[in-house]
Amino acid sequence: MGKIMRVLALSMVFVCCFAVCNANAFRMGDQGSEVAEIQGQLANLGYDVVADGDFGPATVEAVKNFQSTQGMEADGLVGPTTYSALMGREMPQVSRSFNSVSRRIIANSMNYIGVPYVFGGTSPSGFDCSGYVRYVFASAGIYLPRTADAQYEIGMPVSRGELIPGDLVFFSTYDYGASHVGIYLGDGSFINASSSRGVAIDSLYSGYWGSCYIGARRIL
Fold first, then answer.
1. Is 129 part of the annotated catalytic residue set?
2. 3-31 pLDDT, tens digit each
3. Beta 126-127 vs 122-123: how paired, if at all?
4. CA 185 to the chain's CA centroid
5. Which of 202, 212, 215, 100 is nearest to 161 (CA)?
């Protein structure tokens, strides 16, 4: 019964995360060329915002001010109505390639660089690979299974060419199947708790890691 309850709880987390991450509105924490385009149009209209592709507090305020002038609810979200009024065309489907949860996970993962490797470790006094990943995700309210092979069974499979920050990357090292896991950071780098270096950043394409890479999963 306990196992069933844990599975149900985990499923609820994924459902909630999917609902939040796929809401059709650009919002605080989003990044990318579409955000930069929105910012550029706001700047053209005289609002104090830089088209840097990062939907931060200044963009939220600019959007709110624009919404107020249009008689809309000033919520700072660029949904279909706001997008149409601002850009003059139908809004595209929002891509949650790097959402605020991902950003929080990536930022928190960096706090433990240098923490030593401890087999079975699950705390900042010492981590093993899956204990580290589980701890970092839990800090954002997302609870993963304990071991690398169990983590490899959840989420959505992702090809290496489609990796985005926050994806889990898996390797077959000391045992057949998924025996090591890390968190993808972007630009071919990932962070992990390795037995030789503790928590550190490595290249996905290095000779060693590239040779034992087996796949990735998207949880966010």
1. yes
2. 433 433 333 333 333 333 334 788 766 77
3. antiparallel
4. 9
5. 215
Please list, in sequence order, all residues whose beta carbon lies within 8 angstroms of the beta carbon of residue 198, skipping any fewer than 6 positions away. Answer: 114, 115, 116, 117, 127
Composition of the chain by helix, strand, coil, percent to 5: 40, 20, 40
| Closest C-alpha among 195, 168, 194 to residue 182 | 168
145 within 8 A of 154, measured Cβ to Cβ: yes
- Parallel, antiparallel, or unpaired for β 168-171 and 156-158? unpaired
| 100-150 pLDDT, tens digit each | 788 889 889 999 999 999 999 999 999 999 999 999 999 988 999 999 999
Q: Is 180 designated active site?
A: yes
Q: Among candidates 133, 127, 138, which has minimal Cα distance to 152? A: 133
Place of tokens 């983590």: 151
- Choose the catalytic residue: 44, 65, 129, 212: 129
Among 17, 65, 99, 180, the active-site one is 180
**Token duo for residue 46:** 């005289």
Distance CA 140, CA 19 (A): 16
Per annotation, catalytic residue among 17, 44, 192, 212: 192
Query: What are the structure tokens assigned to 102, written together?
Result: 């991902």
Q: Residue 155, class by beta-carbon neighbours within 10 Å (0-12 exposed, 13-18 middle, 19+ buried)?
A: middle
Whether 192 is catalytic is: yes
